[in-house]
Design a protein that fits this description.
heterodimer, A: little secondary structure, 8% helix, 8% strand, B: 3-stranded antiparallel beta sheet, 17 helices, 41% helix, globular
């Protein structure tokens, strides 16, 4: 593709099947305590 | 849903449901904008008129690429997740994180404190070891098969009850193997009581340490004062440096709050970086609208601009080898959270709760002291399921405005406490916060694109 460069990302849709283990960090437990961000949490699923 | 924007010379197209991100040139940017509104001939005519060196064949080729991405669900992909969000939360009763209020008391007297100088609109109190121990047992009993359990030692100022914190960590370590749990502790402190003993303990036991500093001395000392009116900067900065130097690679954040008084808050972030700290966070103040230091409508465009300044400077510093991390710009595009994490909200009131020094349960630290939101206690568990249900029903699709928002899989519907403070309802929308959040994600994605295309 000449005009479009796709950046490498995780396909969120594919995680419907094996996601949801809940072992990742709770959003508010890190640094903010005043807002909700989930995209910066690391996935800790060992069975993906 | 597709979101496209231009920032710092990059044309970025995000596909919400798949999480795909595309870097495109001006022509493709315009074509994608028109893709769902016009047919191929019309798009080709309009593009050729705007870009004289672009032929119709060029446009058709680009259209083919877009169709191919659409077919691969990387552009204009459909969003099938709404029901998943409700199902997941309705089927889970697991608690995996507690914010332990070990001290409703503070040795600083910061007038902007959301917790009214650590007292949370109530009496000063320290959590006893017995209450804390029961909180750990309560967490383990309610954690189901979850292995990683998080406990944040919070206040007020938790180091005012340091002996109890130490004993509680010792207790938690003594039970974790038996129950197949892995405790991750966080200490959130203003730094005043940090000494060698605290440093050794925190760096051994705490997975994360959150150190409160608002940035430049004059900014920090404006609010962060002791009860005699003395600013805290000179006392805490050397302590923070010592702790961080001894910490190795373990997580920490220097965390500040900005207010109407320092809308140029990037200078405070840069100051923290220049002090030698590399893991930084800076949050907008949480306070009633009429407070003199509350963020105003007029501040909003300036704040958005500050986020851009920050992102550009961070790219520059990264290139120069002296980069730093900003909490809200951390984005793991390849190994980020699954869809369930993205749609189920922050977990307040369900998998995450706050425990007061007396053992009461609240949906999160920001609701502590507000009797309407009391959930129960650590002995009887949740005794007000109606209150909990309000939180269980929060997710990335629970609000009409979120359904139509491109950022919902990044914020998961936002902070219930922010919504409550802004609108009186946890199901409301804190529009001001949404605008800040969206700008931060745009900046974070742009940085990822910039840094990936550099390599």
């Amino acid at each position: 593709m000449n005009r479009i460069k796709t950046i490498e990302t995780k396909d969120i849709n594919k995680t419907v099947k094996n996601g949801g283990c809940g072992e990742c960090q709770t959003s508010c437990q890190s640094a903010c305590k005043t807002s909700c961000g989930v995209a910066n949490q690391k996935c800790e699923n060992k069975n993906k | 849903m597709v979101h496209q924007y231009k920032l710092n010379g990059y044309n970025i197209v995000m596909d919400t449901a798949s999480g795909s991100i595309h870097l495109v040139d001006d022509v493709a940017y315009d074509i994608i904008e028109m893709f769902k509104e016009a047919d191929a001939e019309e798009i080709a005519t309009r593009i050729s008129a705007k870009y004289l060196d672009v032929t119709k064949e060029d446009v058709f080729e680009c259209l083919e690429d877009i169709r191919s991405l659409e077919k691969d669900n990387k552009l204009f992909s459909s969003d099938p997740y709404e029901q998943l969000a409700y199902n997941y939360k309705n089927n889970s009763n697991v608690i995996k994180a507690l914010c332990l209020h070990v001290a409703h008391s503070c040795n600083l007297n910061c007038s902007y404190c959301f917790a009214s100088q650590g007292k949370y609109q109530g009496e000063r109190a320290l959590m006893s070891f017995e209450v804390g121990k029961r909180a750990f047992d309560f967490l383990v009993e309610n954690s189901g098969s979850r292995v990683n359990l998080e406990v944040d030692f919070f206040g007020g100022e938790p180091l005012m009850n340091f002996d109890t914190v130490k004993k509680l960590v010792e207790y938690a370590r003594s039970i974790e193997k038996k129950h197949n749990k892995n405790f991750r502790f966080t200490l959130t402190t203003n730094g005043m009581l940090i000494d060698d003993d605290v440093i050794e303990f925190a760096n051994k036991e705490m997975s994360n340490v959150v150190l409160s500093l608002d940035g430049r001395k004059e900014i920090n000392d404006h609010f962060r004062k002791d009860y005699n009116g003395n600013g805290s900067y000179d006392k805490i900065v050397p302590k923070f440096k010592k702790l961080v130097e001894a910490r190795g690679h373990k997580d920490y954040y220097i965390r500040g709050t900005f207010t109407h008084n320092n809308i140029d808050f990037t200078n405070d972030i840069f100051h923290m970086a220049d002090l030698g700290f590399s893991e930084l966070s800076m949050e907008p103040v949480v306070c009633p609208e009429g407070d003199p230091y509350a963020l105003t409508k007029e501040d909003l465009p300036k704040i958005l601009q500050q986020y851009e300044i920050l992102a550009k400077e961070m790219i520059k510093r990264k290139k120069n080898g002296n980069g730093f991390t900003f909490y809200h710009y951390m984005l793991d595009l390849k190994n980020g959270p699954c869809i369930y994490k993205r749609i189920t909200g922050c977990g307040s009131g369900t998998e995450y709760m706050a425990v007061t020094p007396w053992g009461e349960l609240y949906p999160c630290h920001q609701f502590v002291g507000d009797e309407k939101y009391s959930l129960g206690d650590i002995w009887q568990g949740v005794t007000k399921p109606d209150v909990q249900d309000k939180f269980r029903s929060q997710n990335a699709y629970a609000r009409k405005e979120c359904k139509d928002c491109w950022a919902k899989l990044y914020c998961s519907g936002g902070c219930a406490a922010n919504a409550y403070h802004a609108t009186g309802d946890v199901s409301g929308i804190y529009e001001y916060g949404c605008q800040l959040f969206k700008k931060r994600i745009e900046c974070a994605v742009m940085m990822q694109v910039a840094l990936q295309t550099l390599n």
